[in-house]
Design goal:
The complex is a heterodimer of chains A (622) and B (292). By secondary structure, chain A is of the alpha+beta class. Chain A is 41% helix and 24% strand. The longest helix of chain A is centred in the middle third of the chain and has 25 residues. The chains are: A alpha+beta (622), B alpha/beta (292).
C-alpha cells in the first residue's frame, strides 16, 4: 500500500490554501479533488476579503500566494457597497461602503472556477518539488484506521492508501464528517440556501453603468419585496465582464414557506433596478423559412451560428480596453476603428440573414449551494481523530447582516490546519490529543471565530450611522428602544455587552426576522424610495433551459438515495431543489439525479454522496 | 530494462463542431471555410501514448503527413502526449495519396525518428475518410505485429513484451475482450472506447506532472518540430502521392435518402397539449407491448 504523510480532501479555496501552506513549510502533501479539474465543483457568491482584524492575526490570500495581487485572476476590487430596499418599482438606497471596508485590506469580486484554478497552479508548483500534488477526479468513499492509528483512505477510483493525517476540506456537505461521525449533518436552521446566475455584460458597459473605472467594482444588495417574504436577500456584484446576481435565503424560512429557488432569482431579475443593471444588446434570430430547400436552411443556420459567435467575441473584445489591445497586438487590426468596422460588417451580414438586435440580458450560468452560518453551526472542536475540518466543512461561515464571508475564513482555516499538521510531522505525533487539540485551539483563537461568537459594536455603529435618516416610527415598537440605546455612544457599549451575554442564540430570532429583511425595507422603499423605470422586460430562461445550459458528466446511477419517499420534507424538495430533480408521483417523491448541482438542499433526509470522480456538475464560472 | 520508445501517427481533420463548419450550397463540406483540428481518433491515440509516458516513462514522438498548417494538429497531440519530437511530412508530391501512399510516407518518417520504435499508435479511423486502413498498412510496411481495437495495454519492461486487450464486436454476438501477448515492436490501432486508467496515487501524481510538462512543451512546440519534404525523408517517389496510390475514385455518389417507413409526426415542444397527446400515444404503444 502506498503511504503519504497527509491527504487533503477537497480542492476548494480552503483545501488549496492548506496544500500551499504545507508546501511552503516543506511538507509533502497530496490533495484529492472529486471534480474532473480544480474549480469544477466550486461556487461562491463572489467576494473574497483580505482582513486586518483589530485583535489577533489571520492568514490572508496575498500572504499565502505571494504574487496574488500581481497575477491572480480576480475580477474587480469592490469600491462601492450599497444596500437597496425594494418595493415594486420603488427603491431606497443606503451606502454601506464603510461596512464593506471595515477591518479589511480589500474585497475582490471573484469567479471560483478561474480563481481556484490559479490557486491550484501556484500550490502545485510548490507541492511538486516535494513529491506531492493535486489529483483530480477522485472521490473518497471511506476512511478507516489501522492499528498504528494511520488513516486508510478508500476511493471510488484508486487503490487504497495510507496517511498519517487528513485535512477535510470537502465543503458544507462534508461526507467525511458524515462517514466518520465527526458531527451531525447541518440542519436547515443552520444553513442558508444560495442561488446565483452569471450575466454576461461587456467590460466598458459595466464601467459606465455602475460608475466605476477599470480597477473598481460595485456590490449592490437587495432586501424588501424581492425576497418574496423570505429571510435573506439578493446581491449583484460586478465582475470584469460578467455580473454575479444571486439570492441567499435562510433555509429554515424556505422550508416554512417553500418558494422555488429559481423563482427567487427571477424576482431579482425582474426588479426594475436590476433589469436595468443587466440590460444588453442581443441578437435575435428569426425563424428560418421552412419553404426554402433543406440545404439552404442548413446553410443559413450555420451562417447565423458562426456570425453570432464572431459578433459576440469581437464585441466583447471591442468593448474592453485590454480586449482591443489584444486584437491589435494579434496583428489582425491596426487601430480601434478597424475593429469597429469589422463589427459593423458582421452586424450587416447578420441583418441580411434575418437577425435583429434588441434589449435583453444574457445569462451564462445558473448554480446553487448551501452556506453554513458559523454563528449557528461552527464545529466547536473541528477535528476527529487525525482528521482536521476546515472552512465550510467545519461550518465556519460568517453571516452578520449583509456581511457574508466564507472564502477568507476557509483560507485562514486551511493555513491553521496546515501549520498544525506540519508541527505533528516534526513531532511525529498525530494523535487527537496533540494534533486535533492544537488545531482546535488555533481556530478558537481565530478572529473569525470571534466574529461568529460576538457582536462587534464598532461594526454595528456603521449600520446605525447608515440608518440615521430612516424615520424611527418605521422601525416599530419592537426595535425602537434597542435602536435608541444603540445610537447613544455611551449606552452602545453596555448594550452590546448585554447582548453578547444573551448570546446570538437569543438575539438571532429578533435580528434575522421577516421584519428586518422584508417588512421594514418594503415600507422604507414605499415611503422614501425613488421610482426606477424599466425600459424592457427581460426574457428569463426556464429552469429546464438553465439546467440544460450547464455541463454535466452523467453517472448512470444516482449518488443520492431517497430514504422516505413520502415524508413532508421530501415533498418540499419538489419545490426547493434548485435543479428540479424531484417530482411526486402517486404520493411518492422520486429523484432524477442527472440535473443535480450537488448543493445538498435535500441531504437532511437522503443518503447523500458527492458524485464519483469526474461525474456530475461542472461549473464554468462558479 | 532500457528505454521505451513510442510513436503516434495522427491526422489534421475538419472541425465538425457548430460555428466552425461551413457547407457549400449543394450540402457538401466547404473545406476552405471550415476550421481544422486534431482528429478525434488521433487524439485518443495520443492519450494511449501518454499512458506509456506516465507508466513507463516512455519517450513519445509524433508524425503526420499533411499541409504545412498540420503543425496545429501536432501541437494539439503534443499537448495530450507530452511528445518531445514532432514530425510533419509535407510535400506537393504527397498530394492525392490514398491510404497506401500515406502509409509509405509515414513508415519512412517513423524510420527517420531519433529512436527505434517499440510501439506505434494510430487512431481507429479518420472522421473525414473513415476507411481505417492507414494504420494497418503502415504496420505492414513497418513489419510490426498489428494489434487492432486495443482498449488497454501493459508493457513488461524486463521481457520487452506487451499484453493488450482487444475489443471484438461482431454483429449479433456479444462483445468479446481478447487478451493477447506479443513481443515488441508492435503497431496498435487504438479502439474509440480506449480510456487510460491510473489506479495508484503515485501514477496520478506522475500523470499530473507530465500533463503540465506537456502543456509547457506545446506552448513552445516549434522547439520540438521538424518539417520534411520528400527528399529530406528520402521516400521512393514512385510509392507516394498519386503514383503510389492504386485507389481510383471513379465516382462519388450521394447516399439517397431512404423513404421513412415509420409514421413520424413533428410536435411543438412548447405546446403542453401536444406533449400530452404524445405521452398518451406513447402510453398506448407501451400498453400494446406488454406481454400477457
Amino acid at each position: 500500500m502506498e503511504k503519504y504523510d497527509v491527504a487533503i480532501i477537497g480542492g476548494g479555496s480552503a483545501g488549496l490554501a492548506a496544500l500551499k501552506q504545507l508546501s511552503n513549510l516543506g511538507k509533502q502533501a497530496i490533495l484529492l479533488e472529486a471534480g474532473s479539474e480544480i474549480g469544477a465543483k466550486n461556487l461562491s457568491g463572489g467576494i473574497l476579503y483580505s482582513k486586518k482584524p483589530q485583535k489577533g492575526q489571520v492568514s490572508n490570500v496575498e500572504k499565502i500566494y505571494e504574487n496574488f495581487l500581481d497575477d491572480a485572476p480576480f475580477e474587480r476590487k469592490i469600491t462601492k457597497y450599497i444596500l437597496h430596499s425594494t418595493s415594486k418599482d420603488k427603491v431606497y438606497s443606503m451606502d454601506l461602503t464603510a461596512a464593506h471596508e471595515y477591518q479589511s485590506n480589500f474585497g475582490y469580486s471573484v469567479l471560483l472556477n478561474k480563481l481556484n484554478s490559479w490557486f491550484a497552479k501556484q500550490a502545485i508548483e510548490s507541492a511538486e518539488k516535494l513529491g506531492g500534488g493535486i489529483i483530480p477526479g477522485v472521490h473518497v468513499k471511506s476512511i478507516t484506521w489501522n492499528e498504528s492509528g494511520n488513516a486508510i483512505i478508500q476511493t471510488d477510483e484508486l487503490d487504497e492508501f495510507e496517511v498519517k493525517a487528513v485535512i477535510a476540506a470537502d465543503g458544507v456537505n462534508s461526507e467525511i464528517a458524515d462517514m466518520v461521525g465527526a458531527r451531525p449533518k447541518f440542519t436547515p436552521t443552520q444553513l442558508y440556501q444560495g442561488v446565483k446566475v452569471i450575466v454576461k455584460l461587456p467590460e466598458e458597459i459595466i464601467e459606465k453603468r455602475f460608475g466605476i473605472s477599470s480597477d473598481e467594482g460595485a456590490a449592490h444588495l437587495f432586501a424588501g419585496d424581492v425576497t418574496l417574504n423570505h429571510i435573506g436577500g439578493g446581491f449583484l456584484y460586478t465582475n470584469s465582464d460578467t455580473l454575479s446576481v444571486g439570492a441567499v435565503y435562510h433555509y429554515h424560512s424556505q422550508l416554512e414557506n417553500p418558494t422555488e429557488p429559481s423563482a427567487l432569482i427571477d424576482a431579482l431579475l425582474k426588479n426594475p433596478m436590476i433589469s436595468e443593471f443587466i440590460k444588453d444588446d442581443v441578437p435575435i434570430k428569426s425563424k428560418i423559412d421552412k419553404s426554402l430547400p433543406q440545404e439552404e436552411q442548413l446553410r443559413i443556420r450555420f451562417a447565423v451560428a458562426k456570425q453570432i459567435k464572431n459578433w459576440n467575441e469581437i464585441r466583447s473584445s471591442y468593448l474592453s480596453s485590454s480586449g482591443r489591445q489584444r486584437l491589435i497586438d494579434s496583428g489582425k487590426y491596426k487601430i480601434d476603428e478597424d475593429i469597429k468596422t469589422r463589427l459593423d460588417g458582421i452586424e450587416n451580414q447578420l441583418t441580411k440573414l434575418g437577425v435583429t438586435f434588441g434589449s435583453d440580458y444574457v445569462e451564462a450560468e445558473y448554480g446553487a449551494k448551501l452556506v453554513p452560518d458559523g454563528k449557528r453551526c461552527r464545529m466547536q472542536k473541528p477535528f476527529f481523530k487525525n482528521i482536521l475540518f476546515v472552512g465550510d466543512a467545519a461550518g465556519r461561515g460568517i453571516f452578520v447582516g449583509p456581511r457574508i464571508e466564507g472564502l477568507n475564513v476557509g483560507i485562514d482555516d486551511g493555513v491553521r490546519a496546515a501549520n498544525a499538521v506540519a508541527k505533528a510531522i516534526d513531532k511525529n505525533d498525530f494523535s487527537a490529543n496533540s494534533l486535533g487539540e492544537y488545531y482546535s485551539k488555533e481556530t478558537e483563537n481565530s478572529p473569525y471565530t470571534t466574529d461568529m461568537k460576538q457582536i462587534d459594536k464598532n461594526y454595528l455603529k456603521i449600520f446605525l450611522d447608515a440608518t440615521k435618516d430612516v424615520p424611527k416610527d418605521l422601525i416599530g415598537a419592537r426595535y425602537g428602544p434597542i435602536l435608541k440605546m444603540m445610537s447613544n455612544e455611551k449606552l452602545r457599549g453596555i448594550a452590546v455587552k448585554f447582548a453578547n451575554i444573551l448570546g446570538y442564540e437569543k438575539l438571532l430570532p429578533m435580528i434575522e426576522s421577516e421584519d428586518t429583511y422584508v417588512k421594514i425595507p418594503i415600507q422604507l422603499a414605499e415611503r422614501l424610495g425613488e421610482i426606477v423605470s424599466q425600459s424592457y422586460s427581460p426574457s428569463i430562461p426556464s429552469i429546464a433551459d438553465r439546467i440544460g445550459n450547464l455541463s454535466y458528466n452523467d453517472d448512470n446511477s444516482s449518488h443520492i438515495k431517497v430514504l422516505n419517499p413520502n415524508s413532508e420534507f421530501m415533498k418540499k424538495m419538489v419545490t426547493l431543489c434548485p435543479a428540479k430533480c424531484y417530482s411526486e408521483e402517486g404520493g411518492n417523491v422520486i429523484i432524477q439525479h442527472e440535473g443535480c448541482v450537488d448543493c445538498g438542499t435535500c441531504s437532511q433526509e437522503t443518503e447523500w454522496r458527492h458524485p464519483r470522480g469526474e461525474k456530475g456538475i461542472h461549473y464554468k464560472y462558479g | 530494462m532500457g528505454q521505451l520508445n513510442v510513436a503516434v501517427i495522427i491526422k489534421l481533420e475538419p472541425d465538425f463542431s457548430e460555428g466552425n463548419v461551413s457547407y457549400n450550397p449543394d450540402g457538401t463540406l466547404n473545406r476552405a471555410e471550415t476550421k481544422n483540428t486534431l482528429g478525434p481518433h488521433s487524439g485518443i491515440a495520443a492519450h494511449a501514448a501518454f499512458f506509456a509516458k506516465v507508466m513507463y516513462d516512455a519517450k513519445v514522438s509524433i508524425g503526420t503527413m499533411g499541409p504545412p498548417i498540420a503543425d496545429l494538429a501536432l501541437q494539439q497531440a503534443q499537448q495530450i502526449s507530452d511528445a518531445e519530437e514532432l514530425h510533419l511530412y509535407s510535400d506537393r508530391l504527397f498530394a492525392g495519396a490514398d491510404t497506401l501512399g500515406t502509409a509509405e510516407v509515414l513508415k519512412t518518417g517513423i524510420h527517420k525518428m531519433k529512436e527505434k520504435m517499440d510501439i506505434v499508435f494510430s487512431g481507429h479511423r479518420a472522421s473525414d475518410g473513415e476507411t481505417g486502413q492507414t494504420g494497418p498498412q503502415t504496420a505492414w510496411k513497418l513489419g510490426f505485429t498489428f494489434l487492432g481495437n486495443v482498449v488497454s495495454y501493459t508493457v513488461d519492461m524486463e521481457t520487452r513484451t506487451i499484453r493488450a486487450k482487444r475489443l471484438i464486436s461482431l454483429q449479433g454476438t456479444p462483445d468479446v475482450l481478447e487478451e493477447i501477448e506479443a513481443p515488441l515492436p508492435v503497431f496498435i490501432s487504438i479502439d474509440p472506447t480506449y480510456k487510460s486508467s491510473f489506479d495508484k496515487v503515485s501514477q496520478r501524481l506522475a500523470f499530473q506532472k507530465y500533463k503540465k510538462e506537456a502543456e509547457k512543451r506545446a506552448d513552445n512546440y516549434k522547439d520540438y518540430f521538424t518539417m520534411f519534404n520528400a527528399d529530406e525523408i528520402g521516400v521512393a517517389k514512385s510509392l507516394v502521392g498519386l503514383p503510389g496510390s492504386p485507389t481510383i475514385v471513379y465516382k462519388v455518389e450521394r447516399v439517397p435518402k431512404s423513404t421513412a417507413t415509420r409514421k413520424a409526426e413533428v410536435i411543438d415542444g412548447s405546446d403542453p397539449e401536444a406533449i400530452r397527446k404524445a405521452v398518451g400515444k406513447m402510453k398506448e404503444a407501451l400498453d400494446a407491448m406488454v406481454i400477457k
